[in-house]
Specification:
Elements: H1 59-62, H2 75-79, E1 87-91, H3 95-103, E2 108-111, H4 115-118, H5 130-141, E3 148-152, H6 162-174, E4 180-182, H7 190-199, E5 203-208, H8 214-217, H9 227-243, E6 247-251, H10 255-264, E7 269-272, E8 280-283, H11 285-288, H12 306-322
Parallel strand pairs: 1-2, 1-8, 2-3, 3-4, 4-5, 5-6, 6-7, 7-8
This protein binds 3-methyl-2-oxobutanoic acid (KIV).
Amino acid sequence: MSEDKKPKEDAGANEESEAPPSPKPARRRRKPVRRENTGDAPAEATGGTRPGKSPSAKPAARDRVTDRHEVKPTVRYLAELKGKRPIVGLTAYDAIMGKLISDAGVDFILVGDSVGTTLLGYDTTIPVTIEDMVRHTSAVRRSNPACLLVADLPFGEASLSFDRLLESCRRLMQEGGADAVKVEGGRDLADDIEKLVATGIPVLGHIGLLPQTVKAIGGYRKFGTERKEAESLYTDAISLEEAGCFAVIAEMIESKVAAVLASQITPPLIGIGSGPNCDGQILVTQDLLGLTAKGVPSFVSPYANLAKDASVALSRYVGDIRNKRK
Ligand code: KIV
């Protein structure tokens, strides 16, 4: 991710900007449909790099032993964690990372379309295809993660027709082995999401910064810093709750606005660059591990610097062979 795509402000998982607008509870999109909002399917249908600074290891955290919590690979379990303990999600795109992350005890793995910017060398997530997502999802599934496995619906798949959307979700679940799908978008997609949930497809919502719209919005930025936008985010969050999303990702939303949204909806609000008061957090694993070529977003404090470690090891190997030390 190039420097010019840096957000104007730090999303500050640990920072709170002053006097943000409160998303004043507005009119609901429609009458709430009283149903389980976990999105559990019948018979349990089963579960970029963004802008930023250079990765540097966080020594204090490096040797900390992970607190173990029970993890169950169901959307109902994840949804019911709200109010009990923070939810942790991380991205994975291959079998080895899937295993490492599952073994670390996360609640869910997201096979994000961030695979485009983290692994595939694209500048945005837009070129990522459904074939890419099926392939990477099935790779993570083969690592037998103990947690919920969610696959991202890539650019365009939700826009052509409901049949196309349904078919893409079917592929992610049947061919990729996903337990659930993530769909970027708010109220405009709520009717389609409701139909997916009714079909037995658990849906993870995604509001705030929608990386698939980056060309339209002109770059990555914080959302909800103005009242009108904060209210619009509220309407989106409520619409996704009513549509039956089992949880909602909140990306780059002003910290205090995200806190209000989390308190107003029943499904967990899982933040990324949206401050500490969400019901959980998700990060792109490559950012967390410092395994990026172009730095990490300003809201990430990397726990390792794997890019540097790999570079040192590779140079040592090349030197050893050249100098016949091996
Ligand atoms: O694609 C992705 O990795 C995501 C997360 C950043 C939420 O959408």
